[in-house]
Amino acid sequence: MHNLPDLSIRQLEYLIAVAEENTWADASDAVGVTPSALSQGLAELERRVGVPLFDRVGRRRMLHPNAEILLDHARQVISLTSDLAKWSDRMRNADEGTIRIGMIDIAAVNYFQGVLKDFRNDHPSLNFHLKVSPSRPLVEALQGGQLDLIVCIEPEEKIKGIEIEPLLTETLSIYKPGGGPLGPPSEWGPWVLFPESSNTRKIISAALKERGSSVNVVADSPQPEVLKEMVNLGIGWTVLPNVQAEAGPRPLIPSSILGTRNLIVASRKNAAQSPAIISLLEALKEQLD
Fold it and tell me: How far apart are CA 129 and CA 252, in angstroms?
């Protein structure tokens, strides 16, 4: 069986240039080499193919009829190679594949809404999935492989197999109906807070007890908008991140800072991260900078 000649992409580009340009000088300009280098490359191509590719007409070299078959092959190869290069660029630029992100509501709506919008616009071919949920379900989905990256409240303890990186620290403030001074901690409340299972509720409860307040919870909700409205209706006091409580319709008036909570970004340890994940993570950090 005859071995296939070891042809180079560059030599095939030379052949196409000679076929499409008026002169060898124009062809050499088109591929960015000197006429001498072009001539040497085509001579090597002819040697490797083993059939004549050019005829001499006076001082000019013209394509031999044999070259037509190779020329068709060259155009197909160059076209496919161009497609491969574009695919490679898209992969490096996070434009292909699937990305599965999880965020708590404040991250998706308040802090990173613009980042997510710009990221999706910049990578239209990317299959992008966003899950907005409380921290605990996000962590469980990350552990189970349903999500690739999450932004959530820092967990109380380290989670096996999960790598975390701090993003930002939020201020948590006390809000009472109508605002104004708080009075002694023994008179604070009643409270409308996040569900008891949430990390933020645990942070709030610990801080309130440390200040000497009871934690008499008359209603709870995972949605800060609901807690805001309960305060506006006079049902109880609450503790919320400032960015959620003091924005939008019917904003609350802070009475005092209670404490802080940390937002982190988490991924599985030793996971082979796609370019899309790396690109989004960089965009999240740039937003905070």
Answer: 33
Q: Which strands make up the sheet holding 162-175, listed edge to edge?
A: 127-132, 98-103, 149-153, 254-268, 162-175, 238-241
Over residues 183-213, the pLDDT tens digits come to: 999 999 999 999 998 989 999 999 999 999 9
DSSP summary character for residue 134: -
Q: Which domains does the chain have, with CATH numbers?
A: 9-92 (1.10.10.10), 98-167+264-288 (3.40.190.10), 170-261 (3.40.190.10)
Collapse the DSSP code of 112 into the 3-class scheme (helix H, G, I; strand E, B; otherwise coil) and give the result. Answer: coil
pLDDT in tens, 21-40: 888 899 899 999 998 998 89
| Under 8 Å between Cβ of 276 and 97 | yes
Name every residue whose Cβ is closer than 8 Å to that of residue 113 and which is 6 or more positions away in sequence: none
Asked if 255 contacts 176 with a C-beta cutoff of 8 angstroms, the reply is yes
| Distance spanning both ends of the chain, measured CA to CA | 63
| Cα dihedral sign, 240-242-243-246 | positive
CB 239 within 8 A of CB 254: no
Say if residues 110 and 244 touch (Cβ distance below 8 Å): yes
> 139: Cβ–Cβ under 8 A, 6 or more apart, which residues?
150, 152, 155, 159, 162, 266
Q: Cα(79)–Cα(248) distance, rounded to whole angstroms? A: 53
